[in-house]
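Ticket #243: bound-state structure for S-adenosylmethionine.
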Amino acid sequence: MNDSAPAAAASAAAAHSASLSFRPRFDIGAARIDCGHEPRVDTHEAADQHASWPVLDYSECEPTEDQAAINRWLASADLRGRDILHVGTGNSSVARLLAGTARRIESVTVARNEWQHGNALKLRDYRVHLLNKHSQAFAEQFEAASFDAILDNNLASFGCCQRHVERYFETLVRLLKPDGFVLTHWLGMQWTLDIGVDDVEPVWRLDAGKLRAIASAYGLAVERQDELFFLRRARGAAAVARS
Ligand SMILES: C[S@@+](CC[C@H](N)C(=O)[O-])C[C@H]1O[C@@H](n2cnc3c(N)ncnc32)[C@H](O)[C@@H]1O
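RESOLUTION: The complex was predicted; output attached.
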């Protein structure tokens, strides 16, 4: 046994016991409660390689329709001096739109090309992180209350299981400043990975009712503006969000 073996065994034991003690916070009908694997950057790589069109790597693609709609809203909003987290980097359209206006823009992606492309742009106060948003590493990447706006047009589209989707929502709530918001879009809510490899349970295709059920489990209120959905801390819900 080498020196790191006891630490690895202890960490595996801790993960196992966390998994055993997991009690879902909300129920929208998911059957896969715990996939049993720590989410990694390459979790969906097999799906990406299987597909004949881009699934994960949008570094060379125009923004999707839903991302473009979010960007139109961003272009009309006053985000001067704000801290932005963009989940699902794509071709860094958000950073190209907001660099020099927002105080900083951080982005996360599982696509290596998006990570390289985004960082190579050398935009002011912009950094891309190669991280799975469902991972513990992402949960620990940023300080609590770091962001005014968190953008994710595919909130649950790549959810491996209830436990890790819940971890993601917990992280989002932790990262939001008190008046911050999460912004998503109807089209991306409706889409899940469904190509025959590593498919996501269809239950994670969200509608307004499911989004409200999830949000309320974290003390968030949902406000709809046409096809955009904003999640903000519900008044008096801070205690729920922290519990
Ligand atoms: C279809 S592309 C969309 C890119 C961009 N948001 C747009 O709509 O134009 C999906 C994006 O989600 C990211 N992604 C998928 N699963 C992820 C995960 N578990 N953690 C972090 N990013 C993920 C991919 O890396 C990619 O950036």
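RESOLUTION NOTES: Residues 70 and 185 are 7 Å apart (CA to CA).
TICKET STATUS: resolved
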